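Sample entry (306 residues):
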Amino acid sequence: MGAVVTALGTMAAIVLGGWVLGWRGTLGPGAQTVLARATFAVATPCLLLVTVAHADLHLLISRQALVTASSTAVVAIVAAVVLRLVWHRPAPDVVVGTLTASYVNAGNIGLPLAVYLLGDAVAVVPTLLFQLLVLAPIAFSVLDAHTATVKPGLRGVVGRTLRNPIIVGSLVGLLLAAVPWRLPEVVFEPFALIGAAAAPLALLTFGMALAVPRADGGTAPRRELALAAVLREVVHPALALVIGRALGLEGPALLAVVTMAALPTAQNVLVYAIQYGRGQPLARDAGVLTTALAVPVLLVIAAVLG
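Predicted structure, serialized as tokens:
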């Protein structure tokens, strides 16, 4: 339990620092957007390249990966159906809303929890890869198609998707992990150094967003926020538990998949929302609410399954 408190406390301290910077205007006007773009286009792709390049790709066909993929897919589909078919939200808002419900904070808090609570950073890899190689490409394809000035056809969507820095970093890392030889570590060092800035920059951006006044439509719709919170902190970990038990997982393996499923909404969702100019209030407020809810949920999971 101490690991959960330590990881969440560290994250909260950095967010608070970002809030102070935003409240005082220390970095000047437009700083939040610049930080978000730097995180999106530079730091995060470098982090993903290094992380995926060193991952064991056998995790992609493990039972843990199957639990992660199936439970996350169900949550994403439920969110998309409700947002689009029931509440009739525009496609870009559906994407951001779906990400707030299904895209977890695997990097900023998942990695520390995997190390301190589960004893192995590899536990976060199935979640990280599914988000990067499945959720992110689908989300960016829809966002690019609906936010571009000129609507691209299929070839244009594919081209824009493959030029997305997040996806490029992930695919390059996947390629390096798949080849039978390994590059010298010195080659990865510049990417690792830049990538190390991704988590703190995302958290600082999140904190700065909290300091922005919420007038003029700056508050997230309550029902969409409630949907994201329930799916994120109740439905997803419950699904992971049920599916994991059905597939025979137990002990540390079951604890790992349920813990990863209970992580709060990733701050990167806010970065993406700012990048595409859609759904910023929902991404911001979902990050705050699910992070607060994740504390008791993760403590309960650690106590019951640990």
